[in-house]
Design goal:
Blueprint: H1 2-26, E1 32-36, E2 40-47, H2 59-76, H3 83-105, E3 115-121, E4 127-128, H4 130-148, E5 155-159, E6 165-169
Antiparallel strand pairs: 1-2, 2-3, 3-4, 5-6
Helix pairs in contact: 1-3, 2-3, 3-4
């Protein structure tokens, strides 16, 4: 599953960085462009905080946390033998590295750079980017895999009548 994780991570990272490049090149900060009326807009902002601009001024902490998450995923990637978990960790790694790249290499300085956000959806209170989307989808997939009892090895656990965990193969995880 390392190859699945790597392909997903590289695809998300590349899409995130390319989309940010296009936004920075073609829009000025604060500019809004209707994509689908007011339902979907590109609204270029730079975010020094986390989600919903929380923690502004603590960018260096987010850089350290993102680097730790990325290192954790790379170190533990060999334990993943489930297609679903490979996708999940690929999404998380790609998204984390996308925002970490901004924090490391964008203004105002190394480790404290502002993340480029640009996707605004009507009725949603935050502006976000591709990396943010990948991280959120990975968390939704985490909940789904956990509720379904799918382990990192691809096996499913369910509660037997004696409340002992029993491993069962995951029918949706044919790639072991």
């Amino acid at each position: 599953m390392l190859i699945v994780l790597a392909i997903v991570a590289l695809a998300i990272y590349g899409f995130d960085q390319f989309s940010k490049f296009l936004i920075v090149k073609n829009l000025t900060e604060g500019e809004q462009v209707n994509v689908i009326g007011q339902v979907l807009q590109f609204h270029f902002v730079k975010n020094s905080g986390a989600a919903f601009s929380l923690g502004e001024g603590m960018t260096w902490i987010f850089s350290i946390v993102a680097a730790a998450v990325a290192i954790f995923i790379v170190v533990y990637a060999r334990r993943i033998h489930s297609f679903g978990w490979g996708i999940l960790f690929g999404l998380l790694l790609g998204g984390t590295l996308g925002n970490l790249t901004d924090r490391l290499f964008r203004e105002p300085r190394f480790g404290q750079g502002h993340v480029v956000d640009f996707i605004q959806v009507w009725g949603f209170p935050a502006i976000f980017n591709i990396a943010d989307s990948a991280i959120v989808v990975s968390m939704a997939l985490f909940i789904l895999l956990t509720v379904r009892g799918v382990g990192l090895d691809g096996g499913r656990t369910s509660r037997a009548s004696s409340h002992a965990a029993v491993a069962e193969p995951d029918p949706l995880d044919s790639q072991k």
